[in-house]
Structures are given as structure tokens and as C-alpha cells.
Amino acid sequence: MHMLKKQRWICSIIGALAVVLGALGAHRLQPILSSAELNTWETAVQYHFIHALALLVIATGKGNDKFLNRSFTFFALGILLFSGSLYFLSVKAHLGIGNIGPLGLVTPIGGLFFIIGWIMLLFQRTGK
């Protein structure tokens, strides 16, 4: 599968998941989660959406720049680790999960991946 086609497929799924998880938080989890947990969920959705849009911009672009591809990868991993861990942290108490130990380090690693993804954009080739 061509790289840009694969990226479009990935960002379509990630974007759809952002909508589904945002709706889940607003309609199903709101009566269950504490205000702090709901705030954490909403932060996850916000970063998920912002970076889903960044993925879309990259996937609809022209060319196959290695730094754009790296940026895409770091954004996708950032969504998985940063937003994914915040989704989990929001509901873990309701799933009967207590102390998560070093798993709590996943969130800042995901945030670091977002930062690296944005920095990778600095090195992309400009069009001719």
C-alpha cells in the first residue's frame, strides 16, 4: 500500500475514534466519572483531535518526505500513548484497577512524542 494511502487510512480511523471517544465521554461517562476524571478524559479527547487533524494534514499532503513520515509516526504514537493513557487513567478506578506503578510514565512519553512530531516538521523539505 502506498505510504500516503496508508496514512489516510490510519488518520481516518484515528479521527473516527476521537469522535466516538468524545461522544462516549460526553454522553455515557459524564454521569459516572468524577469531575477530575471527566476533565482528564476531555484532555485526552482534545489532544487526540488536534493530532488527528495534524495527521490528516500530513496524509493529504504531497510528496514522501522522511521527516513528514516521522512526524506522522510520532503523532500517531503520541495519540496512542498520551491520549490512550489518559483515557485509561480516567476510568481505571471504575474498572477496579488500583495502583498502576510505572505505567503512569506512559503519559509523559506520549507527550514527548507529540513534541518530537512537531519538531520533525521543522526538517521537512519544502516544495520546489
* End-to-end gap: 26 Å
Q: Supply the number of helical segments.
A: 4
The biggest sheet amounts to:
none
Count all strands and give the number. Answer: 0
Regions with little confidence, pLDDT below 50 for 5+ residues: none
State the share of residues found in helices, binned by percent. over 70%
Shape: elongated
Radius of gyration of CA atoms, rounded to a whole number: 16 Å
Strand content: under 5%
List the helices and strands and how they pair.
Blueprint lengths: L2 H27 L5 H25 L6 H26 L14 H15 L8
Helix pairs in contact: 1-2, 2-3, 3-4
Give an overview of the whole structure.
It contains four helices and no strands. It has helices at 3-29, 35-59, 66-91, 106-120. The chain has one domain (3-123). The chain is mainly alpha-helical and 128 residues long.
